[in-house]
Design goal:
alpha/beta; 5-stranded parallel beta sheet; 5 strands; about 10% strand; elongated
């Protein structure tokens, strides 16, 4: 067992060495890295001992929370970084900023409710999906992002390898499953049934958020069995939020605005 020597009247250098060693043993990297700066500030601001200790401990807690958020965001598998702050709501008035910021509170995830983002390409669906998923990860929820076709392919392979139940259970455990590009490609009956199993596993237990370029009426092109299609729509809409992002490309409008601004300049 490693013990640290205890003695009164340590020199500043010896005290710094003892603090460094203790932080390593106790696994307090943030205190170890920021101790000197906080100590200098404590002297300058004439903090009490309790205030100084609180400052040290809160620094470690805040940094641990940040690292946990980063790990959850990384585990979600988002293809790129997107934030609500970076979205130009003025460029797409179909998307109500108040509604999105209410969703960012993640109450719908707490209640295991679904979310559907429906609209044409370039209208901000994927941006919203990733940004809201990121918000959820930052608030402590386990999130997983996937493309619809990638998910179905993974399920088909799992079924072939007799690992289907394990794979469905893995997708069932996360608090929020984000499925992007649902409706871009036709799925055969087997693939559609496997996707339905994932949705059924999560129904009223964990949230699903999807982004699709097809209105629900056009989903029969993706799910060719009408009854299965209706059942999937039901799973994804019951007690949920549906946001129609419209038909005017947000990306195209942003590109045009930048071009016109550059030309005017």
């Amino acid at each position: 067992m490693t013990t640290l020597p205890r003695q009164r009247g340590l020199t500043e250098q010896a005290a710094d060495a003892a603090i460094d060693t203790a932080c390593r043993l106790l696994r307090l990297p943030s205190i170890r890295n920021e101790f000197n700066e906080i100590a200098d500030r404590a002297v300058k601001d004439q903090m009490t001992y309790r205030g100084f200790l609180a400052e040290l401990l809160m620094t470690e807690c805040d940094d641990r929370a940040r690292r946990r958020s980063e790990r959850r965001i990384k585990a979600a598998g988002f293809p790129r970084e997107k934030s609500l702050r970076a979205f130009d709501f003025d460029a797409n008035p179909n998307i109500d900023a108040a509604t999105i910021h209410t969703l960012a509170s993640c109450e719908w995830i707490k209640k295991s409710q679904p979310l559907c983002l429906i609209g044409d390409s370039g209208t901000g669906k994927s941006h919203m999906l990733i940004a809201l998923g990121t918000e959820a990860a930052m608030k402590g929820y386990r999130v997983r992002y996937t493309l619809a076709t990638k998910l179905v392919n993974e399920l088909v392979e799992a079924a072939d390898e007799k690992q289907l139940n394990k794979t469905i259970a893995r997708y069932g455990r996360v608090d929020l499953l984000c499925i992007d590009e649902l409706g871009y490609m036709e799925l055969d009956r087997h693939g559609a049934e496997l996707l339905f199993q994932v949705l059924t596993e999560r129904e009223e237990k964990n949230s699903v958020a999807i982004a699709s370029n097809e209105s629900f009426g056009g989903w029969t092109k993706t799910f060719t069995d009408p009854r299965l299609c209706a059942a999937i729509v039901d799973r994804l809409t019951f007690n949920g939020t549906i946001i129609e992002t419209g038909t005017d490309s947000y990306r195209l409008a942003s590109t045009r605005a930048r071009t016109e601004h550059a030309e005017a300049g």
